[in-house]
Amino acid sequence: MRRPRRLLLLSLCLLITAAFAFAQSGTSTPPPPREKKIHLKHILVVGQTKGFEHDSVTDGMVAIYNMGRESGLWEATLRTDAELITKKDLGRNAKNLDYFDALVFMSTTGELDLDDGQKKDMMSFIKDDGKGFVGIHAALDTNYKWPEYGEMIGGWFDQHPWMTFNAPIINEDFNFPAVRHFPHAFVKYDEIYQPKEWSREKVHVLLSLDSAKLNYENNPRIHRTDHDFAVAWDKMYGQGRVFYSTLGHTQEAWSDPDILKMYFEAIKWAMVLTEGSTASHARVPEGGDR
Fold first, then answer.
1. Other beta carbons within 10 Å of 208
2. What region does 88 belong to: left with phi over 0, alpha with psi -120 to 50, or beta?
3. SS3 for 250?
4. Which residue, 53, 216, 256, 281, is the most exposed by fewest CB within 10 angstroms?
5. Domain ranges across the chain
6. What whole-number distance in Å separates Cα of residue 65 and Cα of residue 44?
7. DSSP string covering 184-239
8. CA dist 124 to 155, 156, 177, Å?
9. SS3 content of the chain, % helix, strand, coil (to 5)
10. How far apart are CA 148 and CA 47, in angstroms?
């Protein structure tokens, strides 16, 4: 009788030991999962103003910085000077254009502090390296003495005929990621620039003013006889993608979800994270009709 009893006691001990081990393994902390390495993009946001200074520059720069952090897609370097627009080794742990995937001009104005070498490097960054450029509002009111800049962005500022007003806008391409969230016809309170040395044939117009709903009386600031007032466009410049919009003049614009969405998607597109047409097209019918 002793042998069966010993076997029974041994079996009980083994069961208790197994149960204890199982309980311990169930409460122990599992090993941490392998860290996912996400390659962040890097963008340089420049807000240097050598002419008119917009109150919204800070709001826009902060908004773009926050977009990157909240989405986890990019880190933004914010500067109010043009020092980093170069491919030279600056030392001091300073970054240069080789570090960035896109360049954003946040309502820059006037002739920026760029020497000939910096201008060459900036154009090479876009045209040869295939990096992105996003121009916001007064980026069109910049670098008048630099012809290649106007060629790259699509033109220059030539007055804002209606100042800041409730602008009637038409969406000309619902398939483009930066404007697909807008309806066909909508209104935004903003300051719309009139571009000069600009041609619809050289850009892909995304948004434009509804010319049938504009007041042309007693307005000497209106210079475009074709009444073609683009609000946003995109284009290629060599290998690089270029996006521009006149929206973003007011501080309030940078708390408008529609405007934030547009520039968020524009930056993504410029960095080749999404796709969208760059082909020019004819004007859509006026008066909001399709």
1. 23
2. beta
3. coil
4. 216
5. 41-270
6. 10
7. SEEEEEEEPPPEES--GGGSEEEEEE-GGG---TT-TT---TT---EEEEEEEETT
8. 19, 21, 26
9. 30, 20, 45
10. 20
Q: For the CA atoms of 244, 247, 253, 258, what is the dihedral angle to 10 degrees?
A: -70
Half-sphere exposure of 53 (CA within 13 A, CB side): 6
What top-level class would CATH report for the domain 41-270? alpha beta
Q: Which long-range contacts (CB under 8 A, 24 or more apart) does 10-19 make?
A: none
Q: What string of pLDDT tens digits covers the 290 residues of the chain? A: 444 444 444 444 444 444 444 444 444 455 555 444 558 999 999 999 998 889 999 999 999 999 999 999 999 999 999 999 999 999 888 899 999 999 999 999 999 999 999 999 999 999 999 999 999 999 999 999 999 999 999 998 677 776 888 999 999 999 999 999 999 999 999 999 888 877 899 999 999 999 888 887 888 887 678 888 899 999 999 999 999 999 999 999 999 999 999 999 999 999 999 999 999 899 887 654 43
Element holding 117 (H helix, E strand):
helix 116-127
Whether 65 contacts 44, CB under 8 Å: no
- CA 182 to CA 221: how far, in whole Å? 28
Name the one residue in this structure whose structure tokens are 């240069």. 96
> Tokens representing 103?
């360049």
**Spatial contact of 139 and 108, defined as CB atoms under 8 Å apart:** yes
DSSP-derived letter for residue 73 is: S
> Quick check: 48 and 82 in contact, CB under 8 A?
yes
**3-class DSSP assignment, residue 92:** coil
